[in-house]
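Researcher: We're teaching a course module on how sequence relates to structure. For the next exercise, students receive a sequence and then see the predicted structure as tokens, so they can try to spot secondary structure elements on their own. Here is the exercise chain.
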Amino acid sequence: MERILIVDDEEIMRQSLTDWLKEEGYDVLAVEDGFKALELVQKEDWNVMLLDLKMPKMDGLEVLQEVKKINRDLPVIIITAYATIDTAVTAMKAGAYDYIVKPFHPEELAILIKKIIEHQNLVKENIILRKELRQRYQFHDIIGKSPKMQAVFELIRTVAPTKSTVLIQGESGTGKELVARAIHEASPRSFAPFVALACGALPETLLEAELFGYEKGAFTGAVAQKKGKVELADGGTLFLDEVSDISLKTQVDLLRFLQEREFRRLGGTEIIKVDVRVIAATNRNLKKLVDEGKFRDDLFYRLNVITITIPPLRERKEDLSLLIQHFIEKFSVETGKKIEKISEPAMHILLNYDWPGNVRELENAIEHAVVITQENIIRPEHLPDFLKKREAKSISGKSLQEVEKEHIINILKESEGNIRRAAEVLGINRVTLYRKIKEYDIKID
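Model: And here is the predicted structure for the students to work with:
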């Protein structure tokens, strides 16, 4: 049962509202001052608060400000008299859901409360739906409902239990390491280490030392023995990212290791055997590099036992909305913000960009927006400059009237048809907004 807290210093108002709301099926509690109300908000959960503005001890505006510190999501309906409408507007800016003017008809309040409850139920349903979607469309930390990504998930499930070497192909930013980690986590090796090495980030001599380790005195600066990534991954998985950048000399050593599953540390004589599964990744065409003589064909065939190709983001646009929501939730937690939604114009911009940097570029863009916004919503102005400039360029062929009409429609949608709120966001008065609606023949549902 939905719970409503009434805060009003007039006993007649408290009693009449309590009786009427209980008849409507709500669980109602009424208190006469803000101090008692704040105690209740701290201790218990409420669906709606009805708050009178003019009260002794602590006025409604002060109560509202304190309530929002305790629970910013609690909808507060301000009850005010004609003489205090300006104060009610101030309260709206401070976070009130809406205001209602005395004397009012109970039906008017009923519609307002019903709208709030319906919205809360919708939010709960969305949370449940999102959990179901995560279970259906998320494999470990990889998200995708597109047929291409579902095929990748199925291939991961198939190869994970085996010992086979896997080659992951895909453009930069598609999430090759995430796929490698998913294979490891779904395998019998999940209890053992997952060790990653970015081969393209190291020169030949350092790469060999990082890969196989070295003995004390093996070269200048080797003051102590160091285990390499191969040895550290014993029993688990070794992930070689950017494997196409390995020099021909190191390719020979890697091939020997893949064939024998044994190696020597640099400067050492002891043969070390390990049980390691190798997963390699590249954003280049290895077969083409083989044809050009830049990559050994025998190593290519050793790596290319099972190939998983990750599609670029532009080829799986149906995954965009899932990824956007995932990153909004992720960075909301990291920044301590509570971003509730993304506006339709902002979503339009994100959905109509090709994302050459793939998922990594999208993730960076959403992080930027979450950090920049000071609201609980992401709007176009919160997106990175390259997206805003691109959108400005794309609409440059439209007339001023077309752009204005689209903007008004979008704001009305965000405001759920509330003319007063839409006018405030647009920075115009309600009369002007009504004139624009009539001028552009905008239908309001």
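Model: If you want an answer key for the exercise: Residues 106-137 form the longest helix (32 residues). The mean pLDDT is 87.
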